[in-house]
Amino acid sequence: MEGRKRTIGWGVLALWVILIALAAPLAGKLGDVQRDRAVDYLPASADSTQVAKITEQMPGGDSTDLVLVYHRDGGLTAADKATAAREVAQVAAEHPLTSPPRPVPSEDGTTLLYAVSSTEPGTDEKARDVLVRDIRETVSGEVGGPGALATDAGEVYNSLDGPLLYTTVAVVAVLLIIIYRSPFLWLVPLVVAGVADYLSMAVTYLLHQGFDISVSGQSTGVMTILVFGAGTDYALLLVSRYREELRRTPRPYDAMVTALRGCGPAVLASSGTVALGMLCLLAADMNSSRGMGPTAAVGVLCALVAMMTLLPALLVVLGRRVFWPLIPAYGSKPKAARRSLFAAMGSSAGRRPLAVLVAGGAALAALALGALNLPGALKQEDTFTSTPEAVAAMKTLAVAYPEMGTQPITVVAPTASVPEVLRTALATEGVATAERGRSGAGWTEISVIASDPPQSTAETTTIKELRTAFGEGVYVGGPSAEQLDMTDTNAGDRNIVVPLVIVVVLLVLIVLLRGLVAPLILVAAVVAVWGTALGIGGLVFGPLFGFEGTDPGLALLSFVFLVALGVDYGIFLMHRMREECLNGAEPGAAALTALRTTGGVIASAGLVLAATFAVLVNMPMVQLAELGFVIAVGVLLDTFLVRTYLVTSASVLLGRKVWWPGPLARKPASNGGSSTGSPKGGSPEGGSSPDGSGSGQIPVRV
């Protein structure tokens, strides 16, 4: 019989080998469909998206717009100007340009600007990158402009995959070694998380092919973080329970079955809640946010499947020796636990619950005020933590040409209305020049130069006024318009997605906890965590990190992640508390018991999840660093303050009302349970019942 059970474990491993073999070619293609242009992030209805689509249909297709910048602090010499003219002529001879470049000298004589536009790459990003690199090899000056900025951004995103994965693996490995205190055990969940990450890449590629979901460097990076963070959390819960069952059960297979029965339902419920919260992003209009929803959900679900199937199979096949040197022998007793940190926290919350709740709420509210100090919308040149060549060129131009914009605003209009559109553009306040460009497919491209720096408040006002003056049928795009559309679209998405996430998560919690008050407490807690984490971000982004702006999607994405992940941990706490009440404990005692018995393992899970998101802080993209910081801080707040003190103290204060209007709110459970909070027939540590059927409780310690 035991041999047959071990064969089941080997069979599961064989199925996973086949699955990964099938997924390998699909996972390798994910990078080919990744798109990180600004217009790829925007909705189809945005003006700037329409401009990009129309210009693609013009002769030569989409254009790559560059700016060649020649600069000398003391003033350009005649030799400098001759070199510039020779190099620009060489560029024009080697590449088809839409118009001959002409020099635009700065008033102080330090800088010479050449605007270069080519349709040679079309919409092929790889061809665009080749063009930019070739021109950079030709010219001795700086190469900037939208095309160069897109190339630099693409190189940064492409460089993230290796460092992001390696750093995440290293962080998780160190934490698991500390938690497990074993030279072997840590490697098992880490390998399983890597397999889950590979599977999630393949599934995401299939979703893109089947449903055309947007895949970006940001979404794939966050997916990797979620797979390792959430997957390791599930592993901690399962391994903790499995270790306990090995002391009570002679055969590893039977111990694993009992462990899965015990913690499986809660893990399934929490991961399902996270996935549903992520899928709420499908309601967003922003293309990148809408694509991140299913991508993040895939990451969580692949981590769940791997940790609930592959990890148990590996542990059963490896047997007890994988826990060496702390092998849980059958019939042994764990060392007597000392008074834990969470027992002390629970005691303090139980003694003065009202004071704890008021003080904690006041502290969160005070920190949340820091959100008022968040820097303004992030400009394109500020999206990098370093300074690539395209950004250096933009900064040079901003100083040398203060009297005019150096980045064109692209207008597309029906060819028949071009004269009127040109007159309207030149009559609009804030417009320096407007020139007619390519025509095709019934449309004409017009290049408008504002009299203010790119993405400044004044230029943004000019773009809005142009759109108002042109009316329907004429579209205003370009890099600055794309940033404006991103900000406006994210603001609209917040008004839709935030309430939707709250409603969906609340409904799921009502079903799981069979009440209304407890779900409301959990949702209010995670919303408070989100506001406080954003406030802390406002206090450090500018003064400490030197960030010049805030990503327009930060508030929305951090809300979805923190609410979903925070409720994930809340489910474990409330699930255990409800079981204590069902077994006869009073709500106050149940809340403290739940905190004491689940606190350690969930704190370990919270630390791992926070650490994995903190990896993003070291990435060279400001939006990733900001998102990682806010989520990491939020998870730590939820783990060590909100869930530990505030949720527990609120539960103690409310007593049975916390389960209103469910049956637990009206009368004590009558199953004969003890009043100490220990399940009937079980151990105080939350182990399985003597018959080995499991109690469905959350594991106690790691």
Task: Supply database-style keywords.
8 strands, elongated, 7% strand, 4-stranded antiparallel sheet, 702 residues, alpha+beta
Low-confidence parts lasting 5 or more residues at pLDDT below 50? 669-702
Give the number of helices.
20
Strand content: 5-15%
Rg, nearest Å: 29 Å
Spatial arrangement of strands, main beta sheet: 2-3-1-4
Give the termini separation.
30 Å
Share of helix among residues? 55-70%
Tertiary shape: elongated
Overall structural class, as computed from helix and strand content, comes to alpha+beta
> How does the major sheet shape up?
4 strands, antiparallel
List SSEs in N-to-C order: HHHEHEEHEHHHHHHHHEHEEHEHHHHH
Q: What is the total tally of β strands?
A: 8
Mean pLDDT, all residues: 85
Account of the 3D structure:
With 702 residues, the protein is α+β, with helices and mostly antiparallel strands. It contains 20 helices and eight strands. The chain has helices at residues 2-27, 38-41, 47-56, 78-94, 125-138, 146-180, 187-211, 217-248, 252-279, 287-318, 341-351, 353-368, 389-400, 418-427, 457-470, 479-513, 517-540, 554-582, 587-614, 622-654, and strands at 64-71, 103-105, 111-118, 142-144, 409-414, 431-440, 443-450, 475-477. The strands form two sheets. It has a four-stranded antiparallel beta sheet, with helices on both faces. A four-stranded antiparallel beta sheet has the order 6-7-5-8, with helices on both faces. Helix 18 (554-582) packs antiparallel against helix 19 (587-614). Mean pLDDT is 85; it is low at 669-702.
